[in-house]
From TrEMBL:
Annotated segments matching region Reductase: 149-404
List of residues binding FAD: 190, 206-209, 389-392
Listed EC numbers: 1.14.12.17
The name this protein goes by in its record: Flavohemoprotein
Xref: NCBIfam families: PRK13289.1
Domain comment as written in the entry: Consists of two distinct domains; an N-terminal heme-containing oxygen-binding domain and a C-terminal reductase domain with binding sites for FAD and NAD(P)H.
Globin domain sequence ranges: 1-138
Name of one Pfam family that matches: FAD_binding_6
Residues the record lists as binding NADP(+): 274-279
Gene3D superfamilies in alphabetical order: Globins (1.10.490.10), Nucleotide-binding domain of ferredoxin-NADP reductase (FNR) module (3.40.50.80), Translation factors (2.40.30.10)
Active-site residues, record numbering mapped to chain: 95, 137
Function: Is involved in NO detoxification in an aerobic process, termed nitric oxide dioxygenase (NOD) reaction that utilizes O(2) and NAD(P)H to convert NO to nitrate, which protects the bacterium from various noxious nitrogen compounds. Therefore, plays a central role in the inducible response to nitrosative stress.
Cofactor: FAD; heme b
Gene name per UniProt: hmp
């Protein structure tokens, strides 16, 4: 337990961390990788280059300072981060390294304002927070290992099938090289793949949603090729252009808390944009196979029919449902038939959404922000809305909605 004095000191730093947080975390990662380059084999290089990881950590540090006396409020966020850590292979021995460099960064950026009293208080607080993470993550490692066909860390899988779903999205099917089966998982969960790319000094890790319902003898991910010089394009382009049948890739056990209980009777609305369809299609397929009486509304937005993936599979699932509906949004310039040409907005969502359902949303951050704002405008409550980020969890800037 932290002393009242330590809590007081840490909470007093919240205002400056709100302002200086990203500067601190930028310095933190720079120095940590400089001194421990082996950690580059774990962290997502693209998220580092785009500043996502720095911003996400800054938000976490600020939240920890603000709620240091009520850490239970942070538990949902801690569990979400712990899922990602477990999927990437973060270990207890990594935490002292992180703590050392976080305190170093606070001292460097805040200068004389970071007194010994503040640094000592943060050192004590970090120790408590790290202990929470380590214990939760160990529980997740143990749970993954105890599953039938489960394992801890990474395991070798071979590519058994490669299917082009659209001009941009390709699916990869994996089975364990040891001939064993795959563990079950919850629709919406993801796996990490770890690649060694020729000519690259470090390993590359990426987390991809499982894009099919559980209960099969393989894993499937569906990857959008980001070949427009974006940092994340390195791995997706390598997968599309170089990974073929029989190739071996290291994979971690399924993780993630953006999940749907297939057996639940409650109505559900699934809304996706682009490649954000991958976890939501797993949910839809799972319901169609195991709970076809459930009411499901599936809404998807795509730039055009050329990049549209899983459209036929979605319709087959809808046909299996006793009360299922699907709606497609396409760009204004396309000629293919669809429910609406243009963006999802309150006025065109209102006639088709089931206001009594739970909403699951996945896609690019601007897409999700727009959809959530639109849903709130038509009266959907915040507690009905669940969403998933690709990459580090970032805060969506969703303003208070007003009635249309």
């Amino acid at each position: 337990m932290l002393s009242p004095k330590t809590i007081e000191i840490v909470k007093s730093t919240a205002p400056v961390l709100e302002v200086k947080g990203t500067e601190i975390t930028r310095y933190f990662y720079e120095k940590m990788f400089e001194r421990h380059p082996e950690l580059l084999n774990i962290f997502n290089h693209a998220n580092q280059k785009k500043g996502r990881q720095q911003t996400a950590l800054a938000n976490t540090v600020y939240a920890a300072a603000k709620h240091i006396d009520q850490l239970e409020l942070l538990l949902p966020a801690v569990k979400q981060i712990a899922h990602k850590h477990r999927s990437l292979g973060i270990k207890p021995e990594h935490y002292p390294i992180v703590g050392e460099h976080l305190l170093l960064a606070i001292k460097e950026v805040l200068g004389d304002a970071a007194t010994d009293e503040i640094i000592n208080a943060w050192g004590e607080a970090y120790g408590v927070i790290a202990k929470v993470f380590i214990e939760i993550e160990e529980g997740m490692y143990a749970e993954a290992e105890a599953e039938e066909n489960g394992w801890r860390g990474f395991k070798e899988f071979k590519v058994i099938k490669k299917v082009k779903e659209s001009s941009k999205i390709t699916s990869f099917y994996f089975q364990p090289t040891d001939g064993g089966g795959v563990p079950t998982y919850l629709p919406g969960q993801y796996i990490s793949i770890r690649l060694s790319i020729p000519g690259e000094e470090n390993l590359h890790n990426r987390q991809y949603s499982l894009s099919t319902a559980p209960g099969k003898d393989y894993f499937r991910i569906s990857v959008k090729k980001e070949d427009d010089n974006q940092p994340e394009g390195k791995v997706s382009t390598y997968l599309h252009d170089h990974v073929e049948l029989g190739d071996v890739i290291e994979i971690s056990a399924p993780a993630g808390d953006f999940t749907l209980d297939i057996a639940e009777p409650s109505n559900v609305t699934l809304i996706s944009g682009g490649v954000g369809i991958t976890p939501l299609f797993a949910m839809l397929e799972g319901i169609a196979e195991a709970n076809p009486s459930r009411k499901v509304t599936f809404i998807h937005g795509s730039k055009n029919e050329e990049v549209l993936a899983f459209h036929e599979q979605v319709e087959k699932c809808i046909e299996k449902l006793e009360n299922g509906e699907s709606y497609l949004y396409l760009d204004k310039e396309t000629t293919a038939p669809c429910y609406h040409k243009g963006y999802m907005a309150a006025e065109n969502l209102a006639p088709i959404v089931d206001k009594d359902s739970q909403f699951y949303i996945c896609g690019p951050a601007p897409f999700m922000t727009n959809v959530i704002k639109s849903l709130m405008k038509i009266g959907i409550k915040e507690e009905q809305i669940h969403y998933e980020f690709f990459g580090p969890a970032m805060k969506l800037e969703v303003a208070e909605a007003v009635e249309v």
